[in-house]
Description:
Blueprint: H1 4-15, H2 21-62, E1 66-70, H3 78-85, E2 91-106, E3 109-118, H4 120-123, H5 129-132, E4 133-135, E5 147-151, H6 152-158, E6 165-173, E7 179-192, H7 197-200, E8 203-207, H8 208-214, E9 222-227, H9 233-243, E10 248-252, H10 253-256, H11 258-296, H12 298-306, H13 311-342, H14 344-355, H15 376-392, H16 395-402, H17 406-409
Parallel strand pairs: 3-8, 5-7
Antiparallel strand pairs: 1-9, 1-10, 2-3, 2-6, 2-9, 4-7, 5-8, 6-7
Amino acid sequence: MxxxxxxxxxxxxxxxxQAGYFVSFNTWLSLIGVAIGVGVLITILSVMNGxxxxxxxxxxxxxxxxxxxxxxxxxxxxxxxAHRALALPGVVGAAPFVDEQALLTxxxxxxxATLRGIDPTLETSVSSIxxxxxxxxLAELVxxxxxxxxxxxxxxxxxxxxxxxxxxxxPAGEADGELxxxxxxxxxxxxFEVGLEDNDGELALAAxxxxxxxxxxGGAMGLRLKFDAVFEAPARAAAAAQALGPGLRTxxxxxxNAGYFRAIRIEKTMMTLILSLVIAVAAFNIVATxxxxxxxxxxxxxxxxxxxxxxxxxxxxxVAQGALIGWLGTLAGAxxxxxxxxxxxxxxxxxxxLFHFEIFASDVYYITLIPSHVERADVLLVTAAGLLLTLLxxxxxxxxxxRVEPADALRYE
Length: 413
């Protein structure tokens, strides 16, 4: 427990100039270093949270929160099952689908793609495909019309626009067990863009019955579900599979896109470790500053000891002085980090205007603004780490000060 006298001495030593210009400079350097480390770490973590949120939104724009299929791979009554699923708690959307691996050709161009059969009337309840359409309408996917909506990159590779025809070839198993291609000509009815290569460059949408007739499944392959809480999808998907009957297996968005989010978590962890070194270096500066203060104040410490100040009191004085430097820097850094995190887009626009360049060029990147999302847990964790590291940095100098012997220090005075 730090007493008022010890706190007063700590403040006096922190403000004193008699210890030398270099010590004073090092004190300010330590404080600024801690502030920069904490501020930059909070800002970077917020930006990475923003990118993670952007990625999640884009992944889920055409992907449902969960997918139900039969464990034996057989087709299911997608429409009937969808209406039953909508009656379950937490389910806000349900739509049948069927996926077939296909080869799309136009003139001399060809491209592998996933041909997805959907029900246009139910699809909008589980995805935001309508908002991603650059041209055409989802309602044009009328059963029997053999129309298709392509991703922008896929359409570009094939060299097609709305109204052009593409030949779709799907491998299908025949009654004799042989695998033979089934071919059908589709008319391009629209083009969409969601900002992910997996969708824009590999996905084609058509009517559910058209894809089922062309493929080998003979019906809906599965059921796509959307819940009112995206992060509760794993638990609710399992509950839905159990409620809708036996023989169903589930796969949620956290499993389907695990690779993306695992990569982000690794990058976030490594960035945290790297930027934490800035705080650690500033903490070592605090150690050096306090060591120099202890050497400069040996006589003062000896006099205080002769006047009755216990070694624990000496420790408290220098712990308080170091904590004052570190904690002011940490709190200043937290404020700076929050200001930057909440205004990162404005700061980025100012930098672009000042240096006349684009950070994310619109003709190269899907994301043109730097996103940011401040997580309270990240701010508290970084702030607590800064406070703890700077507090630990005071231990060695404070113990060193407590070991000063009054007789030795005052022998030649």
